[in-house]
Amino acid sequence: MGTPESAALLWAYWTELTSRHLGRDATEPEIAATAQEYTSPHLVPPRGAWLVVRLEGRVVGGIGLRELEPGVGEVKHMYVLPESRRRGIGRRLMVAVEDEARRRGLHSLRLDTRRDLLEAIALYASQGYAERPPFTSGEYVDHWFEKHLG
Questions:
Q1: Is residue 35 a contact partner of residue 42, using CB atoms and an 8 Å limit?
Q2: What is the DSSP-derived secondary structure letter of residue 46?
Q3: CA atoms within 13 A on the CB side of 110
Q4: pLDDT tens-digit readout, 95-141
Q5: What is 4-148's CATH superfamily?
Q6: Within 10 Å of residue 40's Cβ, how many Cβ atoms?
Q7: In whole angstroms, what is the distance from residue 8 CA to residue 144 CA?
């Protein structure tokens, strides 16, 4: 997560996220505030991971994993650059994070999302994630999902 490429990817994620929340282009201070709010210190080993996908040597997508409790992980900050969407990268990221979770001995993964992220909701459902009761709270969280890993 500490590489310049990962930092640039996360900045793009926070820029898009902040702009969606505000309904307009976000200012740099607003993006920085969102970055601070959504940055998790648990996305680094040993309790977490930040995974990326490269196309032609360039980082185009990333996904975070953090341990919530023994055996249970949370998927965080899945993002694919707009110009790289609709190429199956989100699906590849979900498979990679599940593989990493299994490697770490986690038996289930949870995630939350917003109601307007229809593509993400469809992706999670297609990957076997089922709606569950809330396990987080927040102004921009409307759906919670969980998948038990085999």
A1: no
A2: T
A3: 17
A4: 999 999 999 999 999 999 988 888 899 999 999 999 999 998 877 78
A5: Gcn5-related N-acetyltransferase (GNAT) (3.40.630.30)
A6: 15
A7: 27
Residue 1 has pLDDT above 60, yes or no: no
SS3 state at 49: strand
Query: Is pLDDT at 145 greater than 90 in this prediction?
Result: yes
Angle made by CA atoms 65, 70, 73, in degrees to the nearest 5: 20
Locate 123 and state its tokens: 């992706």
- The token pair that represents 70 in the structure block: 């023994």
Write the single-letter amino acid at 123. L
Cβ(77)–Cβ(113) below 8 Å: no
Residue 35: pLDDT band (50, 70, 90) is low
